[in-house]
């Protein structure tokens, strides 16, 4: 059994990952700006650390074998945060740093994707043993985006854009397996079981929520949208996820 620190341990991915690592018998540390709340659990310690300044990071990393880096702030600062984490991990003698990235970060020129790619490169050059897993979008993100769009009576949907959503608990399971192993470099991508159009996903989400909205096709300009229409965000050859988006919605409704 190992001592494993999960950055972003309070996030959508961090929480099921911590559950799985605890089930597997590891000593687990959860790091995020706000402390990990919920039921007290033996073998789980919470560290309130802001990776943007690093105060308390050395203490959180002392005695850690493996770091799973899930923390992210889409508003910016992820590259600096990763650099600070890597420096501290090297100093603490961490043997393995595992990073969760996104399928297509090298094909779709979205700003957030460019940052993820820059972080992947920092990790590969860091001298710390590393593994990078890229996955497709989590079901939760699709739900969140459609819900946000459905605040207005007309929901814009980009024609030609497809998504291959994956169940976050299955991603957590894969990360837990990788975290228990040796550094493996870039491992095969992981995608959900189905490739669905943005329109189908919006329609399914609205139906499950009992909402009616007009779906308005809106052609998105620019290189990133063109890359999405070419399927740069998809990995149909790695459709390993089992749980479908429809099953996810049904569970939420229940
Ligand atoms: N969502 C997707 O569809 C998807 C798909 C593929 C890969 N990924 C990747 O998976 C990872 C996790 O995504 P997620 O959806 O679980 O994100 P999330 O729910 O937004 O969680 C982000 C986590 O990072 C923490 N955090 C943010 N800024 C921090 C900082 N400065 N210092 C310390 N902790 C900080 C947050 O807690 P506090 O706010 O309390 O600090 C939270 O625990 C990300 O790297 C993302 O790119 C996501």
TrEMBL record:
Highest taxon listed in the record's lineage: Bacteria
Record-annotated NAD(P)-binding domain positions: 8-140
InterPro entries for this protein: Ergot_Alk_Oxidoreductase, NAD(P)-bd_dom, NAD(P)-bd_dom_sf
Gene3D superfamilies: NAD(P)-binding Rossmann-like Domain
UniProt name for this protein: NAD(P)H-binding protein
